[in-house]
Specification:
single chain, 3 helices, elongated, mainly alpha
Length: about 55
């Protein structure tokens, strides 16, 4: 069992779960705002994965 794979999977699952919750609970105007800022969110998630990788390596 590779701890890096487990950490990446857990972080990805948490990010997807949070995104689904945020979209389902948001008002229509907030949904537009979330979609508009999707690029920034993806970059932040990429940085998170890099940080987790550096912690576990």
């Amino acid at each position: 069992m590779d701890i890096k794979s487990i950490a990446k999977g857990a972080a990805a699952g948490a990010a997807v779960g949070f995104a689904c919750y945020a979209l389902s609970a948001a008002s229509p105007m907030k949904k537009y705002s979330i979609k508009r800022n999707a690029g920034k969110t993806l970059k932040a998630a990429e940085n998170l994965f890099q940080d987790l990788t550096s912690v576990f390596s």
